[in-house]
Amino acid sequence: MSRPSLVQAVDPDRPAPEVIARAGVLLREGRLVAFPTETVYGLGADARNAEAVRAVFEGKGRPPTDPLIVHVPTVDAARAVVTEWPNSAQLLADAFWPGPLTLVLPRHEQLPAEISAGRPTVAVRVPAHSVALALLAAAAVPVAAPSANRFGRVSPTTAQHVQEELSGVYDLLLDAGPTPLGVESTVVDLSDGTPRMLRPGGVTLEDLRDVLGEVRHDPRHIVDEHEAASSPGELLRHYAPSTPLVLVEAPQEIADGLASSLQALGIRAVILGLDPDPAEAAKELYASLRRADAAGAAVLLAGTVEPAGLGRAVNDRLFRAAHGRVVLDGEPATVERVAALARTAPSSGGGVGDGPDG
Ligand code: TXA
Ligand code: MG
Q1: Average pLDDT of 268-286?
Q2: pTM score, two decimals?
Q3: Are 190 and 204 in contact (CB under 8 A)?
Q4: Counting beta carbons within 10 angstroms of the beta carbon of residue 51, is it exposed (0 to 12), middle (13 to 18) or buried (19 or more)?
Q5: CA of 337 to the centre of ligand 2 (A)
Q6: DSSP structure class, residue 103
């Protein structure tokens, strides 16, 4: 089914109340509304409405095994969709909500099992964006919203990115300009023993440990999509451009030298060239990936950023976008190695066309 996909510009700080009210009604009617958060744009649906939730999975091409995040405007509304609210949840909510932090807790039965792919838990967050908060308050229902991109692809940080990927899928798109943070929320599992960070994001591991003390983080890169993952965001293939991306974990000069050598051989290489400051890199990451992907290159090269703070989230996304193809510092960084890596794209057929869509 193709939907109208209207686009409505809104002021990011003071969204017009009548526009927000209309969008809230659409959500309550079971329609899909794409909207900005501080991290990336989300594709929203009434989380209590199983049919609307199924339309989100279908529209994204997302497997029904990959659970969605539920967005709410207040801590009280978050508590209403879970059956346990441990002290750790209260501490994190006090410290970081509204903000880029998602908590995984036991799911209340008022939410359909589809939301969390049949798991007994649900992921919930209060986003820090005036448009998102106003919309959630107006809708007055919990709103399931994955990033508004096709499954496995690069996340959207502008309304135009959403239009390019999901036109026909949403009923309304609220365009409030680029999202301020640029990478997704941090996902923390509080449902079982020691808190565990499942996905690095806008709230850093250091921030979490300052509040909770012990927080586990065992980065996993799951190659087999059928393998039971505690969070399918741990899939290695994710956030991926169609052009093969090779990460160069070495000084920038080495990546620059590699690009020149590849060019000299007639292999068109484009360097991602992210800002060395992790917060700036996060902001520009997805738009840069999309731009580089559109440049018609045979291979993309990217350096990693400082692996602390937001840099952890940036490197995580780069690693997954590269499908794990990394030239490490100290390895002979030869064009042969890069060319060989680019050819090992798990399912991107050598870099054109049918990248990981599933
Ligand atoms: O910043 C964000 O979180 C954005 C904006 C729109 O809020 N949303 C987003 O949603 O990134 P999505 O669907 O692209 O990613 C949700 C992540 C996935 O890694 C998913 O596996 C994990 O959260 N997740 C959701 N529910 C879960 C659950 N019950 N248990 C474990 N992981 C869960
Ligand atoms: Mg996503």
Answers
A1: 93
A2: 0.92
A3: no
A4: exposed
A5: 30
A6: E
